[in-house]
Amino acid sequence: MFPLCVAVIPWGILCGSLAIQVGLSPWQAQAMSLFVFAGAAQLAGMQLIGLGSPAMPVLSSTFVISSRHLLYSAVFQSYVKDLPLFKRIVFAFFLTDEMFALTNVFIAKHKRFCYAYAVASGIAFYVMWNLATLVGIVAGNNIENLQAYGLEFAIAATFIALVVPAIKDKSVLMSVLASGVSVLVLELLAFEYALIASTFIGMFAGYYFAIKSVARKSASRKMSPKYAAKQEQNDE
């Protein structure tokens, strides 16, 4: 948990400094991290605010970027559906990419879902994000052109750290490759909803190869043990 918390520090600093540079007051900048807590959506929204965009493009862009949380919530729906409404609201507020990844690692390791662990990890990132935002606000008032230090790479580094450990079989690998290639192609084609489209392309690719893997393993049970073992190794 701690390495990922550290990884969001440059990201949070960039968010705080950018908020100041686009004209938000220190209180507004900090309030955005306190009440919105949206990471990449915050950065995109503030960039649009800085360009003088009207409210609708800002809202639509942040919605599109945050739409991946619909997938995250669907994954956890069976675990939290019977919890009280307040607990579900708390869980939803703290649900981030990092919390999603850590909670899934916990489930894979312990074969169970732990609400306390999930929320605790979310709170840890929330605290670190807001502290980093505060540093960025102070830096934005005192250091010019903070973006020149390459802090935005923290965004890519964080997602790489989340995705790579999850690649454990062919279906996950193909999902990552399909979504990665498709988002690059769609961005080059200037497709407005490249992020959403590539997400679904990756999902379908992962689902297709997962189904193929299950079918092969099912068929291998009817084969000789030696050939079946070889087929299962090829699927991994």
UniProtKB/TrEMBL annotation:
The compartments listed are: Cell membrane
Q: What protein am I looking at?
A: Branched-chain amino acid ABC transporter permease
Q: Which InterPro entries match?
A: Brnchd-chn_aa_trnsp_permease
Q: Which domain of life is it from?
A: Bacteria
Is Transport one of the keywords?
yes
Q: What is the lineage of its organism?
A: Bacteria, Pseudomonadati, Pseudomonadota, Gammaproteobacteria, Alteromonadales
The answer, when asked if Transmembrane is one of the entry's keywords, is yes
Q: Which UniProt keywords apply?
A: Cell membrane, Membrane, Transmembrane, Transmembrane helix, Transport
Protein's organism: Pseudoalteromonas phenolica
Q: Where are the transmembrane segments?
A: 29-51, 85-107, 114-140, 146-164, 171-189, 195-215
